[in-house]
């Protein structure tokens, strides 16, 4: 459990045992840090939570006191179900996809939890098949749902929720129908930043690796890529689009071999855009196995910016998504609608940020012959 939660439970236990009595002043923050062997931020957050839950009372200029729990509060506490729908393509292991892909889900869940804590919202996390969503809401007495990253073929599920007037906000997804209540990264803006960066470096031969088109985000990135290429009227070799809808997270090694074969069969582009971080890792490993230097021979750029991206060889140019902000905004959007007594609606897009590192550089000099892949591996002019 988080440190602040342990501090919170320790103080609560002292109150329940009677060690701290109603009306008694709480020890100072520094004294609590010493007594509990922890840090000031953890104590501060624990006290904030206990005040919100009615265990403590904070009086400005006087201190923090133990509340009289015999006087119960009648203020309602909202409950949000945080659900993810089982994938149509089942993972090969027993580990759910959402817990495996921690570079994305960790920050998103953290944002959801922070916002819920600030608003006094109780969260129930569930993997929930679409056909029992309504039953789950009824049994859990949930006031609304945060639907995590529904796929392209889940759009009808969201429409059904909308028609049933069941309040929800979908996060990390956006659909053609922008009336659906969603909070997502502006994928078109992110792809435009990537391609403008490559264009300004001098790249005109740009390939894309996008292996999960069942994801709405990755589908949007493919659409944005096509739109930008079309607007620039660039000649595009269709063989430079490495596409799949059935990529299973965690199966990167199997895809490295496929990527190597792809690199051997197509004219080598000067730059490759990977639509997700794991796909960038697959591409980088395949390029390295073929002896193709990044960025000297091929520049590489990716969506998503976990900490490890800065420590790759070379450090990876990425698009950083506002993951915590996505989770926070989804909770706030649902909370605000319920407070007003209306259904949440409308898609909101948050801006991403291009992080430029050493994996992108100007393309090879004009006039040199296009690179080809030898049968033994390695690039030759």
CATH fold call of the largest domain? Rossmann fold
- Count of β-strands: 16
Structural class from helices and strands?
A: alpha/beta
Query: Approximately how much helix is present in the residues?
Result: 25-40%
Per DSSP, the total helix count is 12
Order of helices and strands: HHHEEEHHEHEHEEHEHEHEHEEHEEEE
How many structural domains can be distinguished in the coordinates? 3
As a percent range, the share of strand residues is: 15-25%
- Taking the alpha carbons of the first and last residues, their distance comes to 56 Å
CATH class of the largest domain: Alpha Beta
CATH-defined architecture of the largest domain: 3-Layer(aba) Sandwich
- Lateral strand order in the biggest sheet: 4-3-5-6-7-13
The CATH homologous superfamily of the largest domain corresponds to Response regulator
- On the 0 to 100 scale, the average pLDDT is 87
What are the segments in which pLDDT stays under 50 over at least 5 consecutive residues?
A: 90-100, 367-381
Largest sheet properties: 6 strands, parallel
The geometry reads as elongated
């Amino acid at each position: 459990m988080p440190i602040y939660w342990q501090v919170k439970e320790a103080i609560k236990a002292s109150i329940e045992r009677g060690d701290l009595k109603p009306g008694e002043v709480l020890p100072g923050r520094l004294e609590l840090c010493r007594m509990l062997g922890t840090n000031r931020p953890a104590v501060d957050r624990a006290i904030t939570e206990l005040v919100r839950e009615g265990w403590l009372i904070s009086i400005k200029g006087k201190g923090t006191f133990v509340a009289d729990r015999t006087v119960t509060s009648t203020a309602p506490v909202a409950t949000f179900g945080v659900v993810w729908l089982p994938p149509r393509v089942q993972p090969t292991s027993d580990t759910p996809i959402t817990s495996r892909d921690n570079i994305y889900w960790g920050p998103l869940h953290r944002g959801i939890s922070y916002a819920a804590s600030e608003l006094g919202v109780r969260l129930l996390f569930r993997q929930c098949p679409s056909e029992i969503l309504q039953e789950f809401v009824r049994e859990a007495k949930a006031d609304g749902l945060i639907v995590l990253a529904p796929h392209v073929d889940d759009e009808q599920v969201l429409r059904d929720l909308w028609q049933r007037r069941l309040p929800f906000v979908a996060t990390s997804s956006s659909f053609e129908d922008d009336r659906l209540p969603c909070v997502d990264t502006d994928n078109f803006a992110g792809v435009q930043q990537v391609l403008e960066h490559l264009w300004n470096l001098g790249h005109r031969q740009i390939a894309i690796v996008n292996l999960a088109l069942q994801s709405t985000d990755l589908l949007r990135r493919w659409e944005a890529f096509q739109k930008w290429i079309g607007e620039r009227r660039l000649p595009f070799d269709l063989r430079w689009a490495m596409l799949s809808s059935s990529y299973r997270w965690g199966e990167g090694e199997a895809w490295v071999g496929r990527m190597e074969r792809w690199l051997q069969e197509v004219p080598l582009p000067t730059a490759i855009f990977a639509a997700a971080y794991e796909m960038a890792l697959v591409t980088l490993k395949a390029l390295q196995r073929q002896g193709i230097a990044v960025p000297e021979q091929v520049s590489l750029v990716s969506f998503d910016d976990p900490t490890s991206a800065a420590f790759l060889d070379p450090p990876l140019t990425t698009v950083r998504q506002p993951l915590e902000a996505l989770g926070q905004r989804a909770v706030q959007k649902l909370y605000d609608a319920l407070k007003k007594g209306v259904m949440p609606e409308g898609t909101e897009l948050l801006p991403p940020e291009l992080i430029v590192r050493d994996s992108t550089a100007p393309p090879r000099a004009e006039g040199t012959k296009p690179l080809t892949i030898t049968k033994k591996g390695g690039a030759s002019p």
